[in-house]
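Here is the promised in-class demo. Please do not try to memorize the tokens; focus on the logic of going from shape to residues.
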């Protein structure tokens, strides 16, 4: 990967009972790494991490430890960062997790298996120059979670995508709002925000059961309450709908991920939603906070 570049692979899932949630992001050239930023982003492979976030009563956990190139093994069908890793067997993605949380140290260990129900074959440019790209790998999947620490096991519907870029994320964008919702037949994915300099962008897609996509008109704008860190959250919903936040999974100084109850394209739906403020991320104060939640291992 060229200097300044990044890649990440993202998985989210919600349990069938609605009580538990999961997000896993595997990073090369970790876009939120203060270490990658301060070193000038010259060596993406030297700044890798697997971020794990679990939510639910008695089953919450967080881990995101960055490791250097000597602890990374990456190939066509696998990506290992220290003791944790992802591997693709042709039918499913298996993620083995063996991490410690920070700043309070507790074990985060287990296995997650993602079985796609559709495969997306198209990548989409998020900016006119194509310096930032998004690929919805499996907009609909079944996810099995088996965690030893914390002790929890569940299954549910999930989503798997990837992003790639040739420059820092904050060099291309000021903010964005993203959401995905599983409808009866389709999967709706909505992207919108502002590029660096303030130019707006938006993308609204629906994926059918075969993974084929088509553009659709963005539903009307809908407001959501700000987060505890006062990050603005915005979404889209049918004109007669009133989306609400069921639970905020992650509430960080520059980023939030939430579960929503909403209505899209005439159907009631639960959505996974994220809001990202890169203006806030650029703040020197926020940069000094990051190492406490995103330590770097030197072993």
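The designed amino acids, position by position:
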């Amino acid at each position: 990967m060229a200097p300044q570049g990044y890649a990440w692979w993202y998985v989210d899932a919600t349990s069938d009972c609605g009580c538990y949630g999961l997000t896993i992001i595997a990073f090369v050239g970790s876009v939120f790494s203060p270490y990658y930023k301060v070193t000038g982003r010259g060596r993406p492979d030297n700044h890798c991490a697997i971020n794990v976030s679990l939510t639910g009563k008695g089953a919450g956990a967080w881990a995101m430890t960055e490791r250097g190139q000597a602890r990374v093994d990456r190939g066509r069908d696998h990506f290992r960062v220290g003791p944790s890793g992802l591997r693709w067997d042709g039918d499913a993605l298996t993620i083995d997790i063996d991490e410690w949380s920070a700043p309070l140290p507790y074990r985060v260990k287990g296995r997650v298996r993602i079985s796609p129900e559709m495969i997306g074959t198209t990548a989409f440019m998020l900016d006119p120059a194509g310096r930032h790209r998004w690929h919805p790998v499996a907009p609909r999947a079944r996810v099995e979670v088996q965690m030893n620490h914390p002790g929890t096991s569940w299954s549910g519907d999930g989503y798997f995508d990837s992003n790639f870029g040739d420059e820092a994320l904050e060099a291309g964008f000021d903010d964005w709002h993203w959401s995905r919702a599983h409808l009866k037949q389709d999967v709706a994915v909505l992207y919108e925000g502002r590029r660096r300099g303030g130019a707006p962008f938006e993308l609204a897609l629906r994926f059918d059961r075969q993974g084929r996509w088509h553009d659709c008109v963005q539903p009307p704008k809908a407001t959501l309450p700000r987060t505890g860190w006062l990050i603005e959250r915005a979404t889209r919903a049918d004109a007669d709908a009133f989306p609400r936040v069921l639970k905020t999974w992650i509430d960080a100084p520059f980023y939030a991920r939430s579960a929503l109850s909403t209505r899209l394209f005439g159907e009631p739906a639960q959505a996974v939603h994220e809001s990202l403020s890169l203006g806030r991320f650029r703040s020197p104060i926020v940069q000094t906070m990051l190492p406490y939640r995103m330590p770097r291992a030197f072993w």
